[in-house]
Structure to design on (338 residues):
């Protein structure tokens, strides 16, 4: 019996080892396809509206300006990583800040997987390193998403209130994001919504039970100081990236004001997420170009501005994730076998 069990374990490990590289190459292929799709779309627009003007705008940017944009994006990732650490410790995990930052940043490698399911890799790393089951760490992902929604909704609402013009059409999205964040941070209400959903569709009983259990466990995050700290960290992070977009537009000679710039950036990010496309690819870029056009920004400026800000935010995050992912995977595997 022991020999048979050992053989089965070996076969399972061998199968997982075989699937690992295959899955990794599949994810890399998906990243490449999405990147090519976005670049092809933006290049097509640039060619149709005057490639020389677009090229001129891109060439105006200096290396130091690109570094500033990347640094502001890094501020976003680090502050949101600190929020992940706050939630992790509040949940009862004895993880360190460095450990949580490794998990959070490494998870960016899976940002463009369909439905962002790939980000659940963070919970797998936690299971290996702490022994906590996925069901127990699931609230971390729920709170992370809800906190982002709340912070971005407040930023969008504030940007709309302080600006004028076409961006006012984004108010319904801000209200929708706030409503989603409110539900996601109310354990009883979220559990009731899950129950209602199950009664409506009558499918996936085991999954629904797990989600309902995770929803009830959100109670631990409900204290005022924790929610305030989480919101502050999220606001600082997302405002940093919005400010980067504002600087970029100024450098390209299209200063529309900080409030309007951050509102357009935030709305485009949210709109891209609502499309369901991995990483909001395609939808976010289209929304950004369209809203800039409504503000009178010519396409020879809006197209390169959109391309640069997406490269220095979403794709920069993915690059960081790809760099951190192997280390996070290796450390978690060692912890699991220790």
């Amino acid at each position: 019996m022991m020999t048979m069990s050992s053989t089965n374990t070996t076969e399972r490990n061998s199968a997982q080892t075989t699937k690992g590289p295959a899955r990794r190459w599949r994810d890399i292929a998906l990243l490449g396809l999405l990147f090519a799709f976005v670049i092809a779309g933006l290049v097509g627009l640039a060619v149709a509206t005057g490639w020389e003007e677009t090229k001129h705008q891109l060439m105006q940017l200096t290396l130091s300006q690109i570094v500033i944009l990347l640094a502001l994006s890094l501020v976003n990732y680090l502050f949101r990583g600190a929020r992940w650490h706050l939630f992790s410790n509040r949940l009862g995990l004895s993880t360190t800040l460095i450990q949580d930052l490794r998990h959070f940043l490494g998870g960016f490698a899976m940002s463009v997987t369909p439905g962002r399911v790939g980000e659940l890799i963070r919970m797998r790393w936690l299971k290996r390193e702490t022994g906590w089951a996925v069901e127990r760490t699931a609230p971390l992902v729920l709170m992370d998403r809800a906190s982002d929604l709340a912070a971005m909704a407040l930023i969008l609402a504030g940007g709309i209130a302080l600006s004028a013009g076409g961006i006012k059409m984004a108010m319904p999205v801000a209200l929708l994001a706030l409503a989603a964040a409110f539900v996601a941070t109310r354990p009883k209400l979220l559990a009731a919504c899950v129950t209602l959903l199950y009664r409506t569709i009558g499918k996936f009983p085991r999954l629904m039970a797990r989600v309902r259990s995770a929803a009830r466990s959100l109670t631990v995050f409900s204290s005022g100081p924790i929610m305030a700290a989480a919101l502050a960290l999220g606001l600082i992070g997302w405002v940093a990236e919005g400010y980067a977009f504002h600087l970029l537009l100024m450098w390209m000679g299209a200063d529309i004001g900080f409030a309007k710039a951050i509102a357009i950036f935030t709305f485009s990010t949210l709109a891209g997420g609502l499309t369901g496309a991995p990483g909001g690819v395609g939808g976010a870029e289209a929304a950004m170009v369209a809203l800039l056009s409504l503000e009178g920004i010519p396409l020879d400026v809006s197209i390169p501005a959109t391309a640069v800000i997406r490269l220095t935010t979403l794709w920069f995050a993915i690059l960081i994730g790809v760099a951190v992912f192997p280390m996070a995977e290796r450390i978690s595997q060692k912890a699991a076998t220790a």
